[in-house]
Amino acid sequence: MSNAPLDREHWSRVAKEWIAWARLPGHDAFWAYRRSLVDFIGRGDGKALDVGCGEGRVSRMLKGRGYRVTASDPVVELVEAAAEVDSAHDYVVADAAALPLKNSRFDLIVAYNVLMDVEDVPATVKEIRRVLRPSGQLVISLVHPFADRGAFAGSEPDAPFVLRGTYFGRQRFEGAEERNGLQMHFAGWSQPLEAYASALEEAGLAITSLREPVPDLGDEQEHLTQWTRVPLFLWLKAQ
Fold it and tell me: Which of 146, 118, 124 is CA-nearest to residue 205?
């Protein structure tokens, strides 16, 4: 899920937590946005790379959409977990900024909530560009940079969203969440949208599509009601 030693060490330490957290259906925000994400990516029959695959849920989604999937992650335990449930066709243990893959290999590359875990975003995006075919497409999901810099003032559905400090600059974040008897420790980097856009530009990639999705709320997702007012995720396509 990352390419920096600090972040690789973190995700190695919490790998078991993440596998349990991600695999409980309907548990976290992924499930409330999954249908929209599937539509955003679309169907395909080419080669796809899931960068920072974690336990493999995005790889399985891509596989179900018709792609031949390679799943990569720097954490051995996460790649093994992905392989145990047949998430992809091929597996690679590698940092996102140093992929042992041939140039121009993939028709689609998905970086789902990965670039927040990467210390050197420009280097990572350049490496992704290297293994992407000239006609290929990169799909990026981020926790929305604005959402990263604030919090709701209370649990009420209409509670105001309050900006903490400044939106600008780069900050390290660490925190823990508990839900349904599970605990997950998160850590990574928060930076404004301009930083990601600049990294894409430096790599010779242009943003072709942008979405700020709204969650599908079910019985298990009522805790996301506030995120129908403020975007939790930001999705980009680049070529």
Answer: 124
Nearest to 2 by CA among 129, 175, 119, 88: 119
d(CA 63, CA 17): 24
Dihedral-angle region of residue 26 (phi above 0 means left; psi in -120 to 50 means alpha; beta otherwise)? left
Closest CA to 110 of 61, 144, 153, 148: 61
| Whole-angstrom distance, CA of residue 149 vs CA of residue 146 | 5
| Residues composing the chain | 239
Distance CA 136, CA 239 (A): 6
> DSSP code of 227?
G
Q: DSSP letter for 107, please.
A: E
Distances (CA, A) of 97 to 124, 127, 183: 4, 5, 29
Q: In this structure, what DSSP letter does residue 94 have?
A: -
- Residues 118-171 have pLDDT tens digits of 889 999 999 999 999 999 999 999 999 999 999 999 999 999 999 999 999 999
- The alpha-helical segments, DSSP class H, found in 53-152 are 57-64, 76-84, 121-131, 145-148
Q: Tell me the C-alpha distance between 190 and 75, whole Å.
A: 21
**pTM of the complete model beyond 0.90:** yes
